[in-house]
Amino acid sequence: MDISRAILSFALDNNCLRMDAVKEFIDGYNQFGNITADDIIRSLKLLYCLESFWWLNNDSFNNEGPPRRFADEMVWLSINWLNLEKILGELKNDNG
Fold this sequence. Notes:
The chain is mainly α.
């Protein structure tokens, strides 16, 4: 969950996942552990399952700051749930 939270917080920009930032995260992480594109996809889906019911409510969308940002991230994940493999596919070629 921490991995996907970090990736969404620094790599999701204007409803687009910045693949350069995700790749840099993976490269940095892999200096100390091992993470693959499949791990990232699984982590993003788990984060959605754990956090969506907190953030996808009217109060989150009416607020500024973190509640709104987290709600927007959950919306992005719900829209792109079936496309995560395609979105992160280029990473699979680099890291497995």
